[in-house]
Amino acid sequence: MSTASASIQMAAPSGLLSLGLFLVAVALVTLLGGSLWLGARIRAHEQLPRPEEQPQLPPGGAVHEVREVRESAEIPKVDKSGHALTPYELAHSSRPSASQERRRWDEGGSGSFGSGGLGPH
């Protein structure tokens, strides 16, 4: 019987454990609240930039978007005896295309990946 009563006492919820968890939760909430208060206080004391420190338009006026069709540079062919080119050795450039007409999807094509269609035949 003594082992049965000992196991019942161990299984009983401990008030001290509950109090400890409650104090940890209160400490966490206090810490988070204090950090929010301190951050708001620091932000309130920051100075706003002066008008001369604000961004200015360029002398030529506003810059507008330029749309053009570009072609990528060709990747050079490497023979069997040569070493493979690394990405750092490739040219990272493109040039304007001869035709500035935008490419359109093929008729009957899905226009996107994963749409479930069979695609062009």
Automatic annotation (TrEMBL):
Asked if the record carries the keyword Cytoplasm, the reply is no
Q: What is this protein called?
A: DUF6479 family protein
Where is this chain compositionally biased, Basic and acidic residues type? 72-82
Organism equals Streptomyces kaempferi
Instruction: Enumerate the Pfam families for this protein.
Output: DUF6479 (PF20087)
Comp. bias regions, Gly residues: 108-121
Query: Keyword set for this entry?
Result: Membrane, Transmembrane, Transmembrane helix
Region feature (Disordered):
72-121
Question: From what superkingdom does this record's organism come?
Answer: Bacteria
Mark the transmembrane ranges: 20-40
